Amino acid sequence: MQVSSLNEVKIYSLSAGRSLPEWLSDRKKRALQKKDVDIRRRIELIQDFEMPTVSTKIKVSRDGQYIMAVGTYKPRVRCFDTYQLSQKFERCLDSEVVTFEILSDDYSKIVFLQCGRFVEFHSQHGHYYRTRIPKFGRDFSYHYPSCDLYFVGASSEVYRLNLEQGRFLNSLQTEASESNVCDINPVHFLFAMGTAEGKVECWDPRTRNRVGLLDCALSSVTADTEIDGLPSISALTFDGALNMAVGTSTGQVLLYDLRSSNPLIVKDHHYGLPIKSIQFQRPLDLIISADSRIIKMWNKDTGKIFTSMEPEHGINDVCLYPNSGMLMTANEAPKMNIYYIPVLGPAPKWCSFLDNLTEELEENPESTVYDDYKFVTRKDLENLGLSHLIGSTLLRAYMHGFFMDIRLYHKAKMMANPFAYEEYRREKIRQKIEETRAQRVQLKKLPKVNKELALKLIEEEGEEQQITRKRKQKNLPSLLKDDRFKVMFENPDFQVDEQSEEFRLLNPLVSKISEKRKRKLKILEELEAKGEEEEEEPEGKASDAESSESSDDEKGWVEEVRKQRKLLRQEEKLKRRERSKEDQQTLLKPQFFEIKEGEEFRSFKDSAKKQKLMKETLEDRLKLEEKLGTLNVSDTTVGSKQATFKLKKSEQQRKQQEAEKRHRQERKTLRRSANHLKSKRGRGRLFH
């Protein structure tokens, strides 16, 4: 079981871990469980909860006892019994399922919409009836009061099939060229359909007339969104009588009140992928929206992110188990994922042991420590001279840096700075000496680091003390005496750089104010040099002249900022001139290039010709190579010609594959380390 946390919301992945093949014997399975810790500690909530290749849709029956999923290959439907924690039955189909609907409370009445324009009905014993619709269907909804099935697809018409009479009724004629999704409101049974033009049409099934039209494509485009084409509707669902959520093909989710044509909130996934599924979680007022890459949970009133999940494989469908915190997904992989989020609700009654398990894990948290790895940033790699290792297997990308082996880090540090130990030793000796000096009777003096800041704090502290004396209040603790800020006045790394651009622009009056403090600092240093004890700290009220100067400074702070900007521009010009002089003085050294084996060097123009050839089509390149005689053509045994070539992947595809590969490797290493630490708990007797 894998545990992740985002925004302090813990997510338990119950399907994480290795799965054993079905053809293994029980003896081999027991032997593998003894050898492999990951297999022994995995949680198999429902036995064989997977598909042969890919799962496309997943739904739960209204009584909560059965979970049904469809997938490939071959096209099939599997029903899982939650009371038995195993598979109930499996039925193979003639063609792939686009979507399906469970009409009864259990699995006894199911309707499948297949990709070959077929509509197939199944009863409790199996296949019952099969018919076809005129155009290819994409979605359908069931109207319970009239027993009508509404089919939408690659047509401007909405086909109606009455299950009571067993015949097709007059279809609804819409203005859309094609429709993608549809849904029926469970309260007042309003029929809504999402079109390819980015509009939502609402129809009244009683009068068979259109009662509303929403232009969601126009509302989804805001100042922050970037789209390539016209957004179409890819997901649609109702919540109660008045709320409706719409998902677009460009990755936006719009929440509507049916009484208004403007959306209440627009949420962008920022991936540009079509929204696959939208679910409402009423107890916490959350909306669960998913595209093929990420599942996001956010507040429907504010749009604030609650938590999110990124599975390893692409997402096809999301199903929220009713009245619980369990979430199931159909993926582009054989295994279907099961997540348990205790914040959303309790575990279902058929797996109530999950509540006890998660409570024990929260009571005894295990901290993950990477003792064998060192986290370094890009700047650290440049200082160590290891920036050329970026992209290799020696560095594992993580957040804003990389993980590297601690032994390699120590070796590189010794080579980059061989005297680091001597400097560390001197620093430790100096700290020990200062600690012994602190035990003696010391004079009241300023710290060695950030003297001006300390003097400013002393002055402000004196003024606050006088105010508190008048008001008879308690004195606040001093920052100089607080141990939390002690390092700021001892470690030279915390020294304020007054010459930096940020400091000079954000503090336009600091130059004049610092002159007064510098005068006091000089006086204090002279007194310390003479060995005179300072009986009083440099504090007190400012004179009339100082107050007048400060008021003049406050009035002219704009002029000071302008002066600082002019000085910064002049400094930048001087730096540019110095760099140009250095560039003129430097001599360019010749560069040597290594020619690959099997190639002949002709001229530098060959590279430009090759780039031009890569832009041509394959037919033109083959003709040109035949003319030049560079194409290797071999004769086969039949007498025909055979030419072999290798297609190069684009740079964007190569980078994306490398990023996905690194991401998978990181997850594997993190999972192995987490499982290694959890193996000490010995929690292997969850299922027998």
UniProtKB/TrEMBL annotation:
Domain Nucleolar protein 10-like N-terminal, first and last residues per copy: 1-364
Compartments reported by the entry: Nucleus, Nucleolus
GO biological process: maturation of SSU-rRNA from tricistronic rRNA transcript (SSU-rRNA, 5.8S rRNA, LSU-rRNA)
Gene Ontology CC annotations of this record: 90S preribosome; small-subunit processome
Presence of keyword Repeat: yes
InterPro entries recorded: Beta-prop_NOL10_N (IPR056551), NOL10/Enp2 (IPR040382), NOL10_2nd (IPR056550), NUC153 (IPR012580), WD40/YVTN_repeat-like_dom_sf (IPR015943), WD40_repeat_dom_sf (IPR036322)
Family statement drawn from the similarity comment of this UniProt entry: Belongs to the WD repeat NOL10/ENP2 family.
Protein name: Nucleolar protein 10
Main location (coarse class): nucleus
Residue stretches of biased makeup (Polar residues): 634-643
